[in-house]
Write a structure and sequence with these properties.
The structure is a single chain. This protein has 850 residues and is an alpha+beta fold. Among the domains are: 172 residues, 2-Layer Sandwich (Dna Ligase, domain 1), CATH 3.30.1490.20; 102 residues, ATP-grasp fold, B domain (D-amino Acid Aminotransferase, Chain A, domain 1, 2-Layer Sandwich); 126 residues, no CATH class; 108 residues, Phosphohistidine domain (Glucose Oxidase, domain 1), CATH 3.50.30. Helix content is 47%, strand content 15%. It contains 33 helices and 23 strands. It is globular and about 95 Å long. The N terminus is likely disordered.
Amino acid sequence: MSTSVEFRTGTLLRSVSSLSASDVDIAGGKGANLGELVRAGFHVPDSFVLTTAAYDAAANAAHVDPHDPAVAAERLRTSPVPEAVATAAREAYRALGGGRVAVRSSATAEDLPGASFAGQQDTYLGVEGDAEVLDAVRKCWASLWNERAVSYRSANGIDDAHVSLAVVIQRMVEADAAGVLFTADPITGRRGRGAIDAVRGLGDALVSGKVDPDHYLVDARTGEVVSAKGTTLDVARLRQIAEVGAHIEAHYGTPQDIEWAIEGSHLWIVQSRAITTIYPLPASAPDSERDLRVYFSANVAQGVFEPFTAIGLQTFRLMSASLAARLGRSVPDPVAGAPAMVDAGMRIFIDLTDVVCNPFGRRVARAALGIMEARSARLIDPLTEDPRLAVRGSSSALTLIRVVRTVAHTGLPSVLFRGLRAPDATRERILAEVDAVITAPLPDDLSAGDRLDAFQRLFLERPGRIFPKLVGLVGSGVLPFAMARRILGTAATPAELQTVLRGLPHNPTTEMGLELWRLARDARSDPQSVEALTSSSPEVLAARYRSGTLRPAFQKSLAAFLARYGHRAVGEIDLGAPRWSDDPTHLIGAIAGYLKLPVDAEPPDAQFARGAREAEAMVETLTARVHGPRRVLARAMLRRVRANAGAREQPKNQIIRLFAKGRALLAPVGDELAARGVIASPDDVWHLTLPELRRAVSGEDMRSAVEARRAERRREMARRHIPRLLLSDGTDVEAAYTPPIEGALRGSPASPGTVTAVARVMRSPQGAHLEPGEILVAPSTDPGWTPLFLTAGGLVMEMGGMMSHGAVVAREYGIPAVVGVAGATNRIATGQRITVDGSGGVVAIDLPAA
């Protein structure tokens, strides 16, 4: 731990040993974390902090205006340090013993759980003497307003007016070796797998990306060195670093990004902050590696990458309990949902462990995911090689019997076979039954508490009644397609069979799109409606619709459309998302887009009709290629595909109708709670769970809980990569098991994910311009490159490791990155399309077409 050095403390200056993690407002993120480490007994070099009060004094003396960052930086850099601050700093520096120190910026918006802001403000090493220390302090203050820090705050939604900066002055560790430890692998996310980058001497060369560091992976639980690239550290030292890191992680309760330095025989910790880029785990994830769980992302499968609102997650918990009950499974706490449904990062995951560990389940998972989410399907096989997921439980035959019995209990097979026998009658009957369940009236004049009870009953009772019927209806289109493919064999190509699925009737999504086109077509015949749609913004037109002041014909047509389809929305599987009937802005924008189609372009309804004709013709073509009973069976199956496959959109459509009913129940609760002041606005109702809403109805003030939930959601909205399959040890299966691209340039993985885009080779950021989505290819990067990262689609660097500046910022922004790619700026040319695999550490250059 830090040796005993006494300082005169006050508002301007604090000893690091007097600080704790809660002192961010006083000492910034870095200073508060260092104080917490000292209090916990870790070895931290002697340090003191010039507090945010000292910065405020300097900023006031320099007349800093937060709305003019460039002027603010210049004034702080050139103005004298206020005498009271300078005196306190000189006295504290001498109390440290003088000599060489590190002067580190510590902003109030850095090293926090939500965003690390690593490298956005300045650090100066080897500073010596009163004058140099004060000059470095001024430079640190000024760096709060440099371009990269301002851009970073803007990207993370942080108001410049609400940030401040402290300065940590720390005894300089004359390091024999230095580096960084991630207590969880930052590429795969695996917890307990320490990733260590190391260089000889000071660590600034590592952070700058000017050298390729040694790289090691150490299992913190066993001390095993899993892989080693380099000779800077021996096994004993690697184990020591990993062990200390594990203790620091245990203290904070979350994986840490730790900077360390070795001076002689002593290991110093010079900084620790939460790793903000790895994907969070479900709260129920087991700590034991032996009890490994496999979680499948329902969000990715549905193409909804944004986080859910709290009420959106709550709705799925209730529905999971409803479906489990329908399958004969008891759920201890229906409000908490079925155990198989978990959430992480405010997104829904399904626990597939029992499926993956069962031979029959594996086959079903591959087949089902192959239809729904092909990339996830390819990840099942690597999992089967993990001994922690060895086959266990019943044989395939016994499992199949149990599944058949369970499914039969739901009534699904009956609907499926009736749909094969009498498609039209079955479809009409099932949809009428579902409609009756959804539209069953609710009592009027409900109190807020009664509305919460009704909401709970709505989603505990009705999904289980309608979902098996709808899935059976979908099966009556999927099963004949599979049978037709088998009957036809080599007589039909996959592309030809896909043609049979064009222009399907009875598809509610297609019908909605065609109805929207007809609405736009009718508006096109009215010059004044066209003028309004092309000259006013969708936001303005939506406001006019709500006030009833659109052109009468268009107002009436839009109202009729919303009466039928107003339950739909962007991100509609989140009940907390506004419906089109709540806010038709997006819809009106789509209508305006239709009007931009050239007059001679084939309209959507004509395209649909042409697709239907081509599909019918393909049915005749394919059946003509086989003879006898095969022809009869093939025609019968393909006819049923045409009649039934459009129902594939019905389950979602009908569940979303139920969601609209749920929103109608809760919206008045939001109004009442906002009027009583227990939430700040009616829309806050969507950011609370059902138990929290009950507490709010009882009078508990939930405003701080809502704000915390909204802040978490804002952070998650910025996350670009969502694991398809996530293990309970934190491993992103795709990042860990995706094989490298053959013939690609090789480097070190630095930020997970894959992107294919145009490369832009740059050797300096001075005057550089990067088009949105382009991949930045550079020799190395320092903080001066940061503004380019806001628009970059990916990053390739010739130098650097996981802790180099470019790698850190790439992970913060969620863009794939590969570093240490020898000769990248010579072997890749601007304008070439390249693929960056930030998980595998490879870069592939697309060959030009022959």
